[in-house]
Design a protein that fits this description.
By secondary structure, this protein is of the alpha/beta class. It has 30 helices and 18 strands. The strands form four sheets. It has a seven-stranded parallel beta sheet with strand order 3-4-2-5-6-1-7, with helices on both faces. It is elongated. It comes from Pseudomassariella vexata. Belongs to the DEAD box helicase family.
């Protein structure tokens, strides 16, 4: 996201207004106007003197050693002094004078030589001398290949330009494009990556680049290669032709086609060294087989726990796998990893942590191989062979920076040694071979295999790391160094903890054609064909493998993630690992099969038997689909409106009708079948009616028995004045008939009759109820609890 720098406004904005004649504006009553006029005149004189000093500067004869000797503005000089930049490096002493005079530059210097200041100082000075303001639009554009390098350039720009008033922005992606677009229109200077800047040039309407003065490409060889070629070509189309262009890198490209693409005008080639690497850098290479690379890296880390190490690998998947593996092994040093697939905030946080760390180990891809300045790096280890010498130079440039001491180690497979060492010697790079001490070697193969067995996610990362490494080797153009056929890939996959080697897609065309044209017999037997000596592995007839055997032998085709493995129930024993459709008991086997002398005979549906004489027939028992043919034909049913299920009505064909007999015979057969069905239904109905009558009779007898018992209990109840006891009186009152009960009992003596339904009710229903014979009925709402309540109730009964 573009960020405005905290720069003080020390230079005046562009103002072409001249002082009025006749001395106006110089009166005593107009002192502020007089001071502003004097200030503008003084700044104008300073700019003229600065421009004259730049014109008089001769880059070829001047022997400059300090920044104070350069014709720089006061804000730039103050910023350099506050940032503790005093002495000029070789590339700075040669490139800055040429850039101040407006010439195009091709700068080539070894890593850590100060190329960043070699183009930042001329950029700031050019905009200052032209009195650039926000109204003038974008004045300078600096492009870097990676986000980490762009952030580093922007931080250096903020330090040395702290006393200028320019607005500077950083455009590296990872955030909202809309938020960046809102600020780009006010920027004078931008540091960016190619892809994100091209996106803004295509989509941001307020971005004006017609007045661009300077274009800078840091690590130009990487920006100009095939990876960024289309982006750079499209980006240059938006820029004006009349501009100053500067290219800086440790390995500079001088091809005419690259220079023509950038519209450079007579560029000056500045190369300040013969050797491509610093003299304070000690370089070694170590020949180790591919299968022992993990052991070598782990042993190296354990031997340098008090150091700051960067280990370069060829792919991000290898970085993730080795980082996760070593993190579980806990070597005793803080581990970090950095690759291009991480989020922007995570990459910046890891870069900050490694920069501030005293002892740490960083696993990284080439995303930080160019231009990034990590202070006090002791070791640079290249775990994978670089694709070319330029990549090797950029990688080892992360150590021995600014004349400091550093050490670098390159790990090579025996097949890569001859070709790579020869190319390094052709570029005059001093490198020596070393060997690992026997007591320092450590084998972690068994530990990694154990971790991959217990952690499916780590095994998955190992598979991806193996595939990405073989793919990178297969895609390399330099076949003299990278020989895929010469690598022991099986042993390498075992060193990564993989039980089976993942398939390798990068093979020779003739091998692919030979594999595709194999016969079915060769495919089923698993033979790879006969070799040159005709000693191909053949299988006997008894060893023929089915497709199910081959399927279950694919133990490394897919890996369950931790989330999916948690969803599966844990297997209690080995027999429960695979869910089977049918479990065969011992009593289901043929006696002959128990003794192992012949095939097994297993009973299945409908009294049928299935002979098991091969593994394929045995697998058939576990397949529902293949067992359907033994179950018989199923019948489709439908449901009517009442929810009853019946067979689907289908119209019989004419041929089937004739085969069943003539029409009269079929009619008589149908009538007879229906008559039988009706008789059976009639018998069922009669039996059901009989059962219902018996049930009613039993209920009536039970009711009569209960009524007889109630009459006997009433005869045994005590009278009111029998004992005068309260409990006896209560029992007597409870035995009294309820209103309407007497009439009901009279009716019960006769055969019970159904009462007419009452479909309405009137006001008379709410009055006090009376019995059918007109006698008065006393309603007892609450049961009498005391003797007074009982006497009151008895008095009411006697009055009646």
């Amino acid at each position: 996201m573009p960020t405005r720098t905290s720069l003080a406004q020390t230079s005046a904005p562009k103002d072409k207004a001249k002082q009025k004649p006749n001395g106006k504006g110089k009166s005593k009553g107009n002192a502020p106007a007089e001071s502003k006029t004097l200030k503008r005149k003084r700044e104008k004189d300073d700019l003229e003197k600065l421009q004259a000093a730049v014109n008089q500067l001769d880059p070829k004869t001047s022997a400059l050693t300090k920044f104070s000797e350069l014709p720089l503005s006061a804000p730039t000089a103050s910023g350099l002094d506050a940032s503790h930049f005093q002495n000029l490096t070789d590339i700075q002493a040669r490139a800055i004078p040429l850039a101040l005079k407006g010439q195009d530059i091709l700068g080539a210097a070894k890593t850590g030589s100060g190329k960043t200041l070699a183009f930042l100082v001329p950029v700031i000075e050019t905009l200052y001398r032209k009195q650039w303001t926000e109204l003038d639009g974008l004045g300078a554009l600096i492009i870097a290949p990676t986000r980490e390098l762009a952030v580093q350039i922007f931080e250096v720009l903020r330090k040395i330009g702290r006393y200028h008033h320019f607005s500077a922005g950083l455009v590296i992606g990872g955030k909202s494009l809309k938020d960046e677009a809102e600020r780009l229109a006010r920027m004078n200077l931008l540091v960016c990556t190619p892809g994100r800047m091209l996106q803004h040039l295509d989509q941001t309407a307020g971005l004006d680049v017609d007045n661009l003065q300077i274009l800078v490409l840091d690590e130009a060889d990487r920006i100009m290669d095939m990876g960024f070629q289309s982006a750079v070509d499209a980006l240059v189309e938006h820029l004006p032709k009349t501009r100053q262009t500067m290219l800086f890198s440790a390995t500079q490209s001088k091809k005419v086609s690259d220079l023509a693409r950038l519209s450079m005008k007579d560029p000056e080639y500045v190369a300040v060294h013969e050797a491509a690497t610093p003299s304070t850098l000690t370089q070694h290479y170590l020949v180790t087989p591919l299968a022992e690379k993990m052991d070598t890296l782990y042993g190296f880390i354990k031997a340098n726990l008090k150091s700051k190490i960067i280990i370069f690998l060829s792919s991000g998947k290898q970085v993730r796998f080795i980082y996760e593996s070593f993190r579980h092994l806990q070597p005793g040093i803080p581990l970090l990893h950095l690759h291009g697939r991480q989020k922007q905030l995570a990459r910046m946080e890891i870069t900050r942590r490694f920069t501030s760390a005293q002892h740490s180990c960083l696993f990284a891809t080439d995303v930080v191989a160019r231009g990034v300045d990590f202070p006090a790096v002791d070791w640079v280890v290249q775990g994978d062979c670089p694709e070319d010498v330029d990549t090797y130079i950029h990688r080892i440039g992360r150590t021995a920076r600014y004349e400091r001491v550093g050490r670098a180690v390159l790990l090579l497979d025996p097949s890569e040694e001859e070709g790579m060492v020869q190319r390094l010697q052709q570029r005059k790079i001093p490198i020596q071979r070393v060997n690992v001490k026997e007591k320092k070697k450590q084998s972690i193969k068994s530990k990694i295999q154990d971790m991959c067995f217990h952690q499916p996610d780590l095994k998955y990362l190992g598979q991806k790391a193996f595939i990405s490494y073989t793919r990178s080797i297969g895609l390399q153009k330099n076949k003299d160094v990278f020989k895929l056929d010469a690598l022991d890939l099986q042993a390498y996959s075992e060193s990564l903890g993989l039980p089976e080697m993942p398939p390798v897609r990068f093979q020779k065309a003739e091998d692919i054609r030979r594999l595709k044209n194999r016969s079915r017999a060769e495919l089923s037997s698993g033979s790879e064909g006969e070799g040159e000596g005709g000693e191909g592995k053949k299988r006997t007839k008894d060893e023929v493998r089915t497709k199910y055997d081959r399927m279950f032998e694919r133990t490394n085709q897919d890996v369950l993630s931790s989330h999916y493995s948690n969803l599966r129930p844990a297997a209690e024993d080995d027999n429960d690992f695979f869910a089977v459709k049918r479990v065969l008991n011992e009593d289901e086997f043929d006696p002959e099969s128990k003794s192992g002398g012949g095939p097994r005979v297993v009973p299945i549906y409908g009294g049928q038997e299935l002979v098991i004489d091969s593994k394929r027939r045995e697998k058939l028992l576990t397949s529902k689909k293949k067992m359907l043919k033994y179950k018989g034909q199923s019948t489709k049913i439908v449901f009517d409106d009442d929810g009853e299920a019946h067979s689907l009505y289908e119209l019989q064909g004419e041929e089937d009708f004739r085969q069943a007999g003539d029409a009269e015979t079929q009619r008589q057969r149908f009538v007879q079948a229906e008559a039988d069905r009706v008789r059976e239904a009639d018998l069922e109905d009669k039996q059901l009616a009989k059962e219902k009558r018996q049930e009613k009779k039993v209920k009536r007898k039970e009711r009569e028995r209960m009524e007889a018992n109630d009459e006997m209990d009433a005869a045994e109840q005590p009278t009111l004045g029998g004992s005068g006891d309260a409990d006896a009186a209560l029992d007597f009152l409870r035995s009294l008939p309820i209103a309407g009960e007497e009439a009901q009992q009279d009716e019960d003596d006769e055969r019970p009759r159904k009462k007419p339904k009452k479909w309405f009710e009137d006001d008379s229903d709410d009055e006090k109820p009376k019995s059918k014979k007109g006698r008065k009925v006393i309603e007892v709402t609450d049961a009498p609890d005391t003797l007074e309540d009982l006497e009151a109730l008895a008095t009411g009964l006697l009055d009646d």
